[in-house]
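Customer escalation, tier 2.

The customer says the design service returned an amino acid string that "doesn't look like it belongs to this structure." They asked us to rerun it and document both sides in this ticket. The original structure tokens are below, unchanged.
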């Protein structure tokens, strides 16, 4: 077996597909393909597998995720129809409108899923800037990036998981998780920059993350209430929906759980105002050299 091979673990019944990140002697460090999970396993526990499609392409995800994308696109069309009706209903306005969706700052501890996320933000017309930042460095990175980017929505994600040989703290202690403490530190930095949860929305966590700790730190939405594996692109779905939800509307996890693959077991949060604004009249594009 070599770095880059796709494998499953025999001891877990082959339930999750991984990509070998590196091999240390007789042990492999693994990153989840569809799930944000970082793990290690003896080489003898691994079975080679061939993915049916290139995992570097965002469309190679599950049917459930493709349905999430479809619902996001439909919601955007409905919002546009609502705006057109609102503008058209006023006889004094005949010049259309323009859109100002919420801007996303996406920090990701996995470069492959950062690339997928940025492509999907583009397809969904969500203004976004993304950075590959190892989880332990995210808090420091936010000190620099938040004043520079000035986002409406911050996504803090990567890889996490409950340690196999957890310490005496048990599942309630942050020391039992691979990266939950790093995510908590990053959320705290974000809240030091902007305390108002409606002025700057924070979506944080990965597979099996300490949901309660992330909310206490100031996240609006976080994983994982049931400590389950979440789909790698679930945080993106929440951010994209918030970007195209009007500032006049408040949404809860009950409104958007169908946009995620893992639902309320995988993600939860508090009521939050959207970050989308409609402007009138429509902006006319002119030739600057005319």
């Amino acid at each position: 077996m070599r770095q880059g091979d796709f494998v499953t673990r025999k001891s877990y019944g082959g339930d999750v597909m991984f990509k070998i990140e590196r091999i240390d002697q007789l042990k492999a460090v693994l990153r989840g393909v569809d799930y944000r999970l970082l793990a290690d396993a003896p080489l003898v526990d691994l079975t080679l597998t061939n993915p049916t499609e290139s995992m570097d392409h965002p469309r190679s995800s599950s049917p459930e995720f493709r349905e999430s994308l479809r619902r996001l696109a439909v919601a955007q069309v409905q919002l546009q129809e609502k705006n057109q009706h609102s503008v058209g209903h006023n006889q004094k306005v005949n010049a259309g409108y323009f859109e100002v969706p919420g801007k996303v700052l996406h920090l990701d501890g996995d470069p492959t899923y950062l690339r997928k996320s940025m492509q999907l933000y583009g397809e969904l017309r969500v203004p976004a800037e993304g950075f590959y930042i190892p989880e332990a460095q995210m808090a420091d990175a936010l000190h620099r990036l938040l004043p520079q980017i000035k986002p409406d929505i911050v996504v803090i994600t990567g890889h996490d998981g409950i340690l196999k040989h957890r310490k005496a703290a048990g599942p309630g202690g942050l020391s039992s998780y691979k990266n939950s403490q790093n995510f908590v530190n990053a959320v705290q930095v974000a809240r030091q920059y902007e305390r108002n949860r409606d002025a700057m929305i924070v979506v944080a966590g990965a597979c099996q993350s300490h949901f309660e700790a992330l909310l206490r730190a100031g996240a609006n939405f976080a994983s994982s209430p049931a400590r389950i594996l979440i789909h790698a692109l679930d945080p993106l779905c929440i951010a994209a929906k918030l970007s195209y939800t009007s500032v006049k509307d408040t949404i809860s996890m009950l409104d958007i759980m169908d946009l995620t693959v893992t639902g309320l077991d995988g993600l939860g949060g508090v009521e939050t105002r959207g970050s989308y604004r409609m402007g009138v009249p429509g902006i006319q594009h002119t030739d600057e050299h005319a």
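Tier 2 assessment: The sequence is consistent with the input. Residues 32 and 67 are 21 Å apart (CA to CA). The longest strand covers residues 18-24. Sent an explanation to the customer and offered a walkthrough call.
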